[in-house]
Every structure is written in C-alpha cells, then in structure tokens.
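*** Fold description ***
***
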Amino acid sequence: MSTSTLLLLLALTGVCHCFVCPNSWTRYGNSCYAYIGQPLPWVEATSFCRASGGRLVEITSASENTFVQNLINSKGAGKVWFGINDMVENGRWVLTSNRRDIPYSNWAPGEPNNLYNNQACGAIYSNGQWDDEYCSVSRTFTFVCEK
C-alpha cells in the first residue's frame, strides 16, 4: 500500500461517523428506526421504546416524515403512535423526549381537534398526515421507535 493511500485511509477514518443499526432497525440519517407491530397504548409504547434504548419516533422534518410514512406503509400499518404530545399545555405540541416545541408538523385537515377535549397524543396515518389521539389505555396502535 502506498503512503498516499494509507494517509487517505487514515484521514477518512478520522471523519467517518459510521454506525450500524441493530438487527430489525433501519438507518435513516443519523438515527435507527424500528417498526413495532405490537399494538400498545401511547404511554406503554413510549416505555417500550425507552427500554429498547430509544424513544417514540420524533418527526422533525418533511423528509423524515416521508421516511416514517414509507416505513409504516411497508409494514401494512394504518395509524401508528409517534413522539409528540400536548399533555402539559393544551394546544402546545411538543417533542416527548425534551418538551421542545415541534419544529415541523403535517396535521391532517381539521387536526389537531382535541375531540371531546381529551386528545393529547400524536399519531401518524399511513398517508403521512398527523392526528391527535386519545391517550387512554384502551386506545392502542402499533408504533415506531427511534434511536
């Protein structure tokens, strides 16, 4: 191996922030994503993702929204939980992990509507549009984790 090739390889390894996602997780950008096909209430889905070393997916851009939409469509899912809520302040939707205002949204027409003043958890349809949903233990959907 020539000296210039060796120097190039050393330079590339110094700037490469490569990582591999665990089995059954899919890489997109700087995160790994897993569709979880077990329907759970929103709070339990959140706990499941944390126990897996991640969080409910927090969609922060149109491109990430499209990625998640494609992921759930590839699994034949209809509506899935994701990591936003307005539990602390009605109408102020935040990322679940850090309570920061959502930087991007893709609400379905007429949403969020806080039906019966009781919808505070985020869900995404297979068409990529968002809905506010009941957080009750009787309401279950599949979900996507991110880490």
